[in-house]
Amino acid sequence: MKQLNLQSQKLTIDYFSFNIPGFIQKDYLRKVALYLFESFGFNATFKREQLDQKETFFSSDKNSHEVNFVHYDYNPKVKSFWEGTKVNFTGDNAEYFYNQIKNNQLDRNIFDLTKLTFARIDINSLRESKVTDTNQSIEDFMELSRRRVITKDKRRKASWEYEETGLVLRVGQRGNPRYYRVYQIDTDHNFKGLKFEFEFKPSILLKELFMDNSIQ
Q1: Cβ proximity of 158 and 176 under 8 Å
Q2: pLDDT tens for residues 124-156?
Q3: What's the order of all strands across the beta sheet hosting 166-171?
Q4: CA 74 – CA 79 distance, rounded (Å)
Q5: E strand or H helix at 151, and its extent?
Q6: Cα–Cα distance measured from residue 154 to residue 144, given in angstroms and rounded to the nearest whole number
Q7: Could you write out the DSSP letters of every residue in 16-40?
Q8: CB-neighbour burial class of residue 20 (10 A; exposed 0-12, middle 13-18, buried 19+)
Q9: Please, are residues 119 and 38 in contact by the beta-carbon 8 Å criterion?
Q10: Phi (first) and psi of residue 76, to 5 degrees
Q11: What pTM was computed for the model?
């Protein structure tokens, strides 16, 4: 039987993040950043979410990957009720980091899940454009999808609209454990296709898969 995994289903990961709750732990953050820098070629930066200044932890022109450490301060005045640091991998950086996990390349003494927790993972798939695609056919697809969602679950929000980048369908709310988007990919005003994106906040099960080296 063929094994099902992201690659076989033509899915990619383009966002991967961890949470480190609590006050800033600069020594630990630098330890993680140095490990990613030396072992996998990640340049590393740090910033506080409420400040514009960005600090470089480690950087080399030879490196082609980047990881960002972003600290969030508890501040009810701006509706920031969580304090901690997010370790963010975006785009190709997320896919590359995911492959290190899948191939069991990470030092679990550094990526200690008593200090780090999974925060968010985005998985997507690109449906390339066809000669029969028109704005009207895409609008019809999004409206049909919206109706199917709310027919199946009236409590779930679903809507689509035009934005600067093109049509976007949203299912759910960004803060929910599961959030879906379908949106047009436009390159130099040429329609490239539709991207289907699934954003979710991982469960305890994923943590167990990570610990057991079972992520595929």
Answers
A1: no
A2: 999 998 888 888 999 999 999 999 999 998 888
A3: 54-58, 42-48, 65-72, 84-90, 12-21, 117-128, 190-200, 178-187, 166-171, 158-163
A4: 8
A5: helix 135-152
A6: 15
A7: EEEEEESS--HHHHHHHHHHHHHHH
A8: buried
A9: no
A10: -60, -25
A11: 0.82
